[in-house]
Amino acid sequence: MSKYPVWIDTHCHLDASEFAGRLPSVIDAAVEKNVKAILLPAVRAADFQKVRDLSHQYGQNIPGLVYTLGIHPLYSSDSQERDIAILDQQISQSLSDPRFVGIGEIGLDYFVENLNSQKQEYFFNEQLALAQKYQLPVILHVRRSQDAILKCLRKRTIPGGIAHAFNGSFQQAEQFIELGFKLGFGGAATYERALQIRRLVKELPLESMVIETDSPDIPPAWLKAEGITFNEPAFLPRIGKELALVRGADEADFASSVWGNAMQVLPRWSALCTDIPGLNQAT
After folding, report:
1. Confidence tier at 257 by pLDDT (50, 70, 90)
2. Is the pLDDT of residue 279 over 90?
3. Do the domain assignments include residue 153?
4. How many domains does the chain have?
């Protein structure tokens, strides 16, 4: 059995410009902190090859480094309808790649002003259709759009996924869980004033939760206090420890549970991670 908890980051944008030129050191820092699995979601068609390449390039360092393919709602304005056909082709070609685990990051964002809601909804629904076609789980962006997304999900038959950076109500949380989704929590829950998110972390069933950094975004409370504005996967274990404290849970048990939850909802990821050393307590 591993001496330390084994950690899994279910949402991390390693392809972001903030990591340019220093990604090897970011990966090394994550390895040192016993982060053995990271999910890298694509956000636009132009980056599909990049996320695939990164997952393979650093897969020997982080054996559970995987990727998903999708078009983020914030990039829908610059996307073209032909990008859906490109995504369809890329998904089909990636099914033979064990590091490909689903479709994402997709969804709706009703927080950012001046986004074309009709175009967002077109891309979201077209990508849900692909998820149904290939029976793949999805990584959802649900910022101030929980009810609209739930309405779209009920029109499809897809095998669940993760509602990333969840910040909805208990009723909405229960509806996502009923549809086969896990809820992602990260740095936002480390702020004592984030009462609703911390209540969700404390009171939702543990089997419904996964943890994430959303690197380089959503830095945890202690980084912001130090004036650091970026996040990275090496910070995940401390985020996990803070969330375990909110729940009053043992840190190792919490790490094991959220690992298992991610593997359950993303079965292609589970297949890749079967032989990762040190996972005795995280299976």
Report:
1. very high
2. no
3. yes
4. 1
Task: Please determine, for residue 121, whether its predicted confidence score (pLDDT) is greater than 80.
Answer: yes
Q: Look at residue 228 in the predicted model and tell me its pLDDT.
A: 85
Residue 283 forms part of a structural domain: no
Q: Determine, yes or no, domain membership for 269.
A: yes
Looking up residue 90, the CATH number of its domain turns out to be 3.20.20.140
In a domain, 217, yes or no: yes
**SS3 per residue for the chain:** CCCCCCEEECCECCCCHHHCCCHHHHHHHHHHCCEEEEEEECCCHHHHHHHHHHHHHCCCCCCEEEEEECCCHHHCCCCCCHHHHHHHHHHHHHCCCCCEEEEEEEEEECCCCCCCHHHHHHHHHHHHHHHHHHCCCEEEEEECCHHHHHHHHCCCCCCCEEEECCCCCHHHHHHHHHCCEEEEECHHHHCCCCHHHHHHHHHCCHHHEEECCCECCCCCHHHHHCCCCCCCHHHHHHHHHHHHHHHCCCHHHHHHHHHHHHHHHCHHHHHHCCCCCCCHHHC
Residue-level pLDDT at 282: 42
Q: What is the pLDDT of residue 2?
A: 46
Q: What residue numbers bound the domain in which 194 lies?
A: 7-276
Confidence (pTM): 0.96
